[in-house]
Amino acid sequence: MANASDSMSLSWRIKERAGFTTVEFAGEIDENTDFLELSGRLTGRVVFHLQQVRRINSCGVREWINFVRDLPNVEELTFSHCSAVIVAQLNMIFNFRGAATLRSFYAPYICDECDIEVEKLLDIETSFPPGGDTEPPEFNCESCGEPLEFDDLPDHYLAFLSEG
Question: Which segments in the chain show pLDDT lower than 70?
């Protein structure tokens, strides 16, 4: 089942799965984003797939926080495939995730040899097990085989991991 918001800036698709619902978001979250219709349709276990969220302005942050705070029929909320934009908000804005659990996010890497930037999807449970360190995992470039370098300050980019 696919639906989109009335906002020109953000769209979503709802996919019913066995035991849970996935909502795939794409675009920009701003003052024109209206989550009212969507929030009323979500029940039970819900996963927000956030890879295609490309921008959030300050009004959008407010709308998002109100949205995730008031999902009356959602029993369990999970954020998956968080884009760098979502990671930035998780690091800056208190309660951006509400009661959601974080499953995975994209992290920036660079290959100095090939001069390319790549995003790697990191599963939180396997890449950052409880009690372990928060060092980003190592990867090799798919083109040349050389080690990729994490393309941000790990303590800054991964700060949201320490917030539980």
Answer: 1-8, 164
